Amino acid sequence: MFSYESGVVAVNTVVTSKEAIMKTCRDMVSERGLSALDMRSVAKACHVALGSLYNYFPSKDALVTATIESVWQDIFHMEQCCEQKPFPEYVRWIFDSVRQGTREYPHFFTAHSISVASSAKEQARKTMEQYFSHMKAGMAQSLRADPAVRRDAFSASFSESDLIDFVLSNLLTLLARQEDDCEVLLEVIRRVLYPA
User: Fold this and answer.
1) What's the pTM value of the predicted model, to 2 decimals?
2) How far apart are CA 101 and CA 78, in angstroms?
């Protein structure tokens, strides 16, 4: 950023970090959404020269992709969850975490999903898929660790992976519809997994 001192224009020589830039970007996304991100506004908010920002991110696409990843990391680290919880409780934790994230980052979930779905940007799709894979891996670990699951709950035509895909698809639908809870999904899970 430039400052005017004694008739001389001076460049702010404050060195920033990638973490500080990401914090600023998350704040901007929280306040105004992903569309608020552009190189100039981020540089201005970080009080650095535009060229300094390009040292960290070669393009707006790289900045937006890194911000999307940073927001997802923030959503999943708002609370710590032990995957040793019963499977339905782990699913509830995912729902509640992402729902809380939508409060911290209004419109991020829907806007991010739509922009990634319509974008030709491979990296943006990979970032979204990475966090969905993270959710699925946590669900798989929780499911395998749940001692109450019926031994005959799964078969060749209905695998653990099938259930996890079904649960993730329904979670995303509930979140996109901005539902307040996932109780019906949890009840379906209980009826499928546990003895009557």
Assistant:
1) 0.74
2) 8
pLDDT tens digits, 8-26: 544 444 557 999 999 999 9
Q: Which residues contact 108 (CB under 8 A, 6 or more apart)?
A: 29, 33, 34, 71, 101, 102
pLDDT in tens, 149-184: 999 999 999 999 999 999 999 998 998 888 999 999
- The per-residue DSSP string of 133-172 comes to HHHHHHHHHHHHH-TTS-TTS-BTTB-HHHHHHHHHHHHH
User: What phi and psi, each to the nearest 5 degrees, are found at residue 155?
Assistant: -145, -175
The structure tokens listed for 136 are 């699925």
